[in-house]
Amino acid sequence: VSIPTPTVQTAPIPSAPVLSARSYLLIDYDSGQILVEKNADEPMEPASITKLVSTYVIFNALKNGDIRLDEQVLISERAWRKGGSKMFIEVGDRVSVDDLLRGLIVQSGNDATIALAEHVSGSVEAFVSEMNATAHRLGMYQSQFMNPTGWPAEGHVMSARDIAELHRDLIKRFPKLYEIFRVQSFTYNNITQNNRERLLYRNDWIDGGKTGYTSEAGYCLVTSGKRDGMRLIAVVLNTDSDQAR
């Protein structure tokens, strides 16, 4: 008499989604395993996702005790004059590092980014050198920076893999400071601006990332979330609309 062998039903592995992004990557935070990718090592214009590197350098300066959150930063004309997205600081104001960080992360303020770069390194140029040195130290070999904001510039590039690994390291190394990324809105100078990472409002398990947009870079996003004990990090670059992103 033959005894039938029980069949083990394995859950089918879903195929990767079809995305309009020119490059994308999804990784598991704990293992670093890549779950899905497309053109993950192609250097591309990152727009304001650049500010993730700037944030990393600033977080590092805070951790090392080089600067403090309650320190007051004198706002230069160069910071005030910077175009694009703004926190709306004024020349000659003294603004705390804490407020400027929120202006950088939540509001994506180019003015806040320049002010912090000058405060941390003495000049924007010295800060950019530190950004490039940090990227190299972290093994981000497809990345190069010409400024701290992501303003379009020849040779200013990042890859999806570099962005994902940077975000992963930032969460690991600075867990307390990383909580700023989930702040949904920030008010400065009587102007309230919402976090541009709109997934924060849709899912309570999403805890923060960074968006970017220029006409050259398209609509970009890096974000992370944790649910049922699993954290994932997602990057999409060069999508053609805010909705697609």
Sequence-ordered SSE layout with sheet pairings:
Elements: E1 23-28, E2 34-38, H1 51-63, E3 72-74, H2 77-81, E4 94-96, H3 97-105, H4 110-121, H5 124-137, H6 160-173, H7 175-178, E5 185-188, E6 191-194, H8 199-202, E7 206-214, E8 218-227, E9 230-239
Antiparallel strand pairs: 1-2, 1-9, 3-4, 5-6, 7-8, 8-9
Helix pairs in contact: 1-4, 3-4, 4-5
Report a brief summary of the structure.
The protein has helices at 51-63, 77-81, 97-105, 110-121, 124-137, 160-173, 175-178, 199-202; strands spanning 23-28, 34-38, 72-74, 94-96, 185-188, 191-194, 206-214, 218-227, 230-239. 31% of the residues lie in helices and 22% in strands.
